[in-house]
Write a structure and sequence with these properties.
about 280 residues, alpha/beta, 8-stranded mixed sheet, two-stranded parallel sheet, 10 strands
Length: about 280
């Protein structure tokens, strides 16, 4: 069923939940650019991993910036690859993504972030507790970048990041779809942006953590093992509330051809276009 006849009223309890998914986040870029083109603002937005990075550009009102960082920078710099694991111990060029890009290529508008009346949280996972951490930061640019970097630090292929001196990894480990977080804060009227097709589930088996990974952090190792089951529970909750008409979900309709580390520009552009198109079908009031 399409979104052609769906209406969503922006109330003070309206929340926007942005899943991660690596390069699949270009779908979210399309959704957010459509919202910005229409002047649609949510009182509360929460983003995980790629969703956190894309959400930052939405909160600052920099239309097209997230798309540029994902598609255009990939075309120019090929910033993902195993060569970075050898040279930077990171499968992505974080220096480019979190320093050169926001400081020089398309500078991030920290003043717009500070002025924004929207609440915006980014999700990380604590290596010490294995629990999700939720951060809202609008005034300290370095801390904004630290949180976004931590939220995007994929286990095994990215180094541990630090927020306020605390070791952190990708927010998707502990809370891939932070719908319950939004509801706990009183945002019960939600739009959820997913980057997988309807019905997708992760494999029904515990995640594997080799013994030499995170030996100092047993809690995060356990969180990685539980990740698949937790994700599947979250998707089931989203689908249940969607069926009851309690929220709206925007997700790719066509079978996903974009990998988490996708480099094919035409595939990325097609997924961005699909996000833009599907968001345009929602009648926001």
């Amino acid at each position: 069923m399409g979104n052609e006849h769906k209406q969503f009223i922006i109330t003070p309890q309206a929340g926007l939940i942005l899943e991660g998914g690596g390069m699949r986040g270009v779908f979210t870029c399309g959704v957010l650019d459509n919202l910005m083109d229409r002047g649609i603002r949510f009182p509360y937005t929460i983003g995980v991993s790629a969703g956190a990075c894309n959400g930052l550009s939405y909160i600052s009102g920099q239309r097209g910036r997230a798309k540029y960082s994902t598609i255009d920078l990939m075309a120019e710099h090929h910033y993902i690859g195993y060569r970075y694991l050898l040279t930077k111990r990171n499968i992505m060029d974080f220096d480019l993504l979190f320093h050169t890009f926001p400081e020089q290529i398309i500078p991030y508008d920290y003043e717009a972030l500070a002025r924004s009346e929207q609440h915006f949280e980014m999700v990380t996972t604590s290596c010490v507790t294995g629990q999700a951490c939720y951060y809202e930061e609008k005034n300290n640019p370095k801390r904004v970048i630290d949180i976004a970097k931590a939220s995007s630090s994929l286990p095994f292929v990215c180094p541990i990041s630090y927020v306020d001196g605390e070791p952190m990894l990708d927010g998707g480990i502990a809370d891939s779809i932070p719908l319950l977080r939004a509801r706990e804060l009183g945002y019960t009227n939600n739009v959820v942006v997913l980057t997988r097709n309807k019905g997708y589930r992760k494999p029904d088996k515990p995640g594997t953590v080799l013994p030499f990974f995170y030996h100092k952090y047993p809690a995060v190792k356990e969180a990685i093992r539980r990740r698949n089951a937790l994700y599947n529970e979250q998707v089931s909750l989203v689908e249940e509330l969607e069926a009851k008409g309690e929220l709206i979900v925007l997700r790719p309709e066509r079978p996903i051809e974009v990998d988490r580390m996708e480099k094919n520009i035409s595939k990325l552009t097609a997924l961005y276009d699909e996000g833009y198109r599907l968001a345009s079908q929602i009648d926001f009031k």
